[in-house]
């Protein structure tokens, strides 16, 4: 059937205006890839996929078969479960270095009006089967979403939500440490941190739990948004931990928390410190950032020759009191829809399809970390970068008397004869 512009078939076959739907789906489809795979003829879908998500080592990404126990948990608890494999070329002098990496996206479990402790514990309960599914699948490194142990209440500017903040070794960390030990898994736990030793300062922090349940270290969010309803600067300050790379049993990893993904130099710094996988745990909404989402992480993976794991929460979180953010919008009580769509990007420009736009989910991917060096050898971005030029430019830019290097056409302001 011919379709007019702006129309797509919904899941039940009806045609509908392509404006998305209230449940967070894209006209009834869980993701863009799902919509395309159902609506395009197989040979067209293959071509669209090749251009949209690229090829890895010259071929489409392969699916991984997961154990029945992992799949049973996803059916029983209704979370999206997808698994792919990124290859690298065979090398003569190095063995492949394949690690299995997982990303979890989820909605909150209780309304924001429930007692705070109940809200947190209900999220723990919700995550248990998803983490068990990752464990049953042999995931080596698992990353949760930004501030996973609470609703993303920073739109409200109300200080009562500060009560969710925990020290690095608090309840949420202890909850995950058990899983790290049980499944011999590195877990990245992005939380709202309370730094008791520094006057109860709050931070937006990712804690790196080693595969033996030990705390390897932490990274604090470098860039705090001041856009739309993301009133996070009311709660915490720009991080003071630099760009650490954590050498774990399964590779060198780093965390670029949410809004840091809009800053190419932030991505660069993790690369300069030798990261092989950079996680981007996020909380962002469709209206604000969805067109940027598939581009920024992928570009970072390409430019820095590392893998990126992008995670976004799902659902709409409604708060008890309406708020405004000085942008002319009428008062409202929610951020809008957190659109999930978690995915992996690889240094060779390939990426996985995204998880659901509205359901909880676990995305798993095998990745041969040898691909990072192979891409460095192939494209030479590190070698061809002109760091001395950039360093000089930045040093000059930082001075109060900086003047932009602009050469004006001398004829620009001359009156024509
Ligand atoms: N959590 C957060 O930093 N969100 C900011 C919005 C965005 O970067 O899309």
UniProtKB/TrEMBL annotation:
Recorded metabolic or biological pathway in which this protein acts: Amino-acid biosynthesis; beta-alanine biosynthesis
Region (Disordered): 1-23
GO molecular function per UniProt: beta-ureidopropionase activity
A GO BP entry: beta-alanine biosynthetic process via 3-ureidopropionate
Signal peptide coordinates: none
Keywords of the record: Hydrolase
Domain CN hydrolase: 99-369
Catalyses which reaction(s): 3-(carbamoylamino)propanoate + H2O + 2 H(+) = beta-alanine + NH4(+) + CO2; 3-(carbamoylamino)-2-methylpropanoate + H2O + 2 H(+) = (R)-3-amino-2-methylpropanoate + NH4(+) + CO2
Enzyme Commission number(s) from the entry: 3.5.1.6
Biased composition (Polar residues): 11-23
Family named by the database record: Belongs to the carbon-nitrogen hydrolase superfamily. BUP family.
Database matches in PANTHER family: BETA-UREIDOPROPIONASE, NITRILASE C965.09-RELATED
Protein name: Beta-ureidopropionase
